[in-house]
Amino acid sequence: MLRFFRNLRQRLLTENKFSMYLLYAVGEILLVVVGILIALQVDSWHETRSENREETAILKSLKTDFLQSKINVDHTLEDQTRVVRYCARLFEVLSEGDTTVPPDSLGEFIYRGALSYWRMEPANGTYDALIGSGRVSLIKNQTLSRLLAEYSAELKYGFEDELQSTDLTTLLVEKSSGFAPVLGKSVFATHFLTTRRQFTDKEIREAVEALRSDNSFLGVLAMKYALEDNRLKYQQKVSKYIADILVLLEEELREKGL
């Protein structure tokens, strides 16, 4: 084919048919341009297909991560809600001087409220890797992309103050070391371990009195309650992000036939 066009070009020049040669030359240039455009279009089509496949894989992986995050955060919310409720109840009992609450219940409020700490553990491997690779633009849905960015920022700069919460919990452990083991015996037996140590009624009464008379414990408990209540609100906010993102991921994958 190339030899044919070369011979044609030489014959036109030899026969001094310049106008025909010029027309031929323009046609040859157009043919080359059309060929380049077709090649570029084919390359673009292949690249788009490749990006679509990669986006689909990312969306599926994100869905797996966020489903796991939902499970993890839901469990944390359940435990954190109990911490806040028990801290509030213990503070109410101590500050109002309520003597009707049995020692076992006080132990439950202490160990599963005042001395408990729960931290969220979302699964963020896929999105972190996406940010690290600089390929976030593969996610075409702008609403989904925005929510993912907000969610990531919330986890990074949100309220989840682990240090302050663990410090307050450690301080309450220290302050309750004299009475908590006595009052928490039923908690140990039910939730942690069994023990043959039997406390006398006198020891239990003294432990209750030690708890009720420890104003410093009550003061730290008030700070603990305020912090844990704020942490609960923060965790609920993160949970809402996870739910909204999962809805968008489901919609995107349905549109792709998955």
Question: Would you mind describing this structure in some detail?
Answer:
- The protein has ten helices and no strands.
- With about 260 residues, it is mainly α.
- The protein has one domain (about 1-255).
- Helix 2 packs antiparallel against helix 10.
- The protein is rod-shaped, with a radius of gyration of 35 Å.
- This is DUF6090 family protein.
- Keywords: Membrane, Transmembrane, Transmembrane helix.
- It comes from Robiginitalea marina.
Give keywords.
258 residues; rod-shaped; 10 helices; mainly alpha
Question: How would a textbook summarize the main sheet?
Answer: none
Estimated structural class: mainly alpha
- Which range best describes the helical content: under 10%, 10-25%, 25-40%, 40-55%, 55-70% or over 70%? over 70%
* Rounded radius of gyration (Å): 35 Å
| Terminal-residue CA separation | 47 Å
Residue share in β-strands? under 5%
Number of helices: 10
Keywords: Membrane, Transmembrane, Transmembrane helix
Transmembrane segments: 21-40
Protein name: DUF6090 family protein
Organism: Robiginitalea marina
Secondary structure elements and pairings:
Layout: H1 2-14, H2 18-96, H3 103-114, H4 125-133, H5 142-157, H6 162-175, H7 180-183, H8 185-192, H9 201-213, H10 215-255
Helix pairs in contact: 2-3, 2-4, 2-10, 5-10, 6-10
Concise description?
Keywords: Membrane, Transmembrane, Transmembrane helix. With 258 residues, this protein is mainly alpha-helical.
